[in-house]
Amino acid sequence: MKNRFLLIAFLSLAAISCQKDQTVQSEPEFPGVQEALWPYFRLFEDEAAARGLTVDLVASRITAEIASIDEGNVIGRCQYGRYSGNHITIDAEFWTRSGHLGREMVVFHELGHCYLGRGHREDAFQSGSCASIMRSGTCCCRDAYRTSTRSYYVDELFSTD
Ligand SMILES: [Zn+2]
User: Fold this and answer.
1) Number of C-beta neighbours around residue 24 at 10 A
2) How far apart are the CA of 27 and the centre of ligand 1, in A?
3) What kind of fold does domain 29-158 have according to CATH?
4) Which site in 9, 101, 107, 148 is 20 to 30 Å from 66, CA atoms measured?
5) What pLDDT is attached to residue 25?
6) What is the Å distance from ligand 1's center to 138 Cα?
């Protein structure tokens, strides 16, 4: 009799801890955003904050996913939603073959469209390097987003002129 009581107590404890896990999972940091993209959404907010800007991507209701984009060299896309939030797609193939900086550059670029409302900027330095990560990728400059140039490009991204 005593043993059966213990077993029931144990089972209900297991059920409670199970429910607790589910509660944690149902509160995503960025709702509607694929979890692999959260670190880059967080970095975008942090880099904005470091420059004195308040960016709240949850409030923006931007959704995002990694999925294959069957369109030539397109590695990312921002779709403007009139009634829902804007939606970002990052190309799955690009994501797989890229490292941290490549992934960050394309997520920041799409947030440049979808959150900051920026268009493309194609101009280049004399070296041929793009002046902005908001380049279209179909024009005339070369990407140079590296650890050593990152702070310039992130400054440029958030500059409002
Ligand atoms: Zn673009």
Assistant:
1) 8
2) 30
3) Zincin-like (3.30.2010)
4) 148
5) 59
6) 10
